[in-house]
Amino acid sequence: MGKLRIAGIRTAWNTVDDGEFFCPACGGDRNYERRTGRRWVAVLGLPVLPRGAADPVLECASCHGRFGMDALDHPTTTLLAAMLRDAVHSVALSVLAAGGSASPATRAAAVDTIRAAGFPECSEEQLLTLLAALSVDSTVLEVTLEIELHEALAPLAPHLAPSGRESLLLQGARIALADGPYQPAEQAVLAALGSALQLCASDTERLLAAASTPS
To answer: Strand, coil or helix: what is 158?
Structure first.
């Protein structure tokens, strides 16, 4: 027979919220319960003396593992896919605005890239209409697209592997190269894209040079 534990610290948990998160233990999207607790000194299993609040935890509904609140910082697989789709759209639009909107080849490359990312209904007309709506003047357009690019990429980049960040940059490069060598404005946008993706300048230059070299 096991020894009877006469006294110890126990935590009484209370569920205060629920939702969906990326479970670090399961490695996928799971439901969770957010739980708060209070620690007690228990004697013979009965709480007799409060010992203060316990840190809140997220308890996975599948594996019942408990994790700190920072587990919510990692996007779910569904959210990550949506973030990536929006990022590709922002990249394509920014490169197109940098000087390629007059080129049928560049427009076609942008549309194909956006469709492949998960927007099958995208058309040249939609992109040109969006650019026209933003183009009050060149300065406003440049600032607007720079903000949009940052907002789309800054939350996403930390959750992408290096190969994923490089892939996004190369998608922008292929759009820029669809009508010939990089234009200065396109190079500037791609450099800003590399920075937003947390790629060092030398890696960005290497990738852009490799993309422009015939295979």
So the answer is: helix
- Check if the beta carbon of residue 193 is closer than 8 Å to that of residue 172: yes
pTM assigned to the model = 0.80
| Other C-beta atoms lying within 10 Å of the C-beta of residue 181 | 9
- Outline where the chain has alpha helix (H): 77-95, 104-117, 124-134, 138-153, 162-177, 184-196, 201-212
pLDDT tens sequence across 147-180: 888 888 999 999 999 999 999 999 999 999 999 9
**How far apart, in whole angstroms, are the C-alpha atoms of residue 165 and residue 198?**
8
Tens-digit pLDDT profile for residues 76-119: 999 999 999 999 999 999 999 887 788 999 999 999 999 999 99
Euclidean distance between CA atoms 76 and 117, whole angstroms: 18
CA distance 207 to 187: 12
For 120, other C-beta atoms within 10 Å of its C-beta total 8
User: What is the H or E stretch that residue 156 is in?
Assistant: none
> Contact 91/168 with Cβ under 8 angstroms?
yes
Dihedrals φ, ψ of 22, to 5°? -90, 110
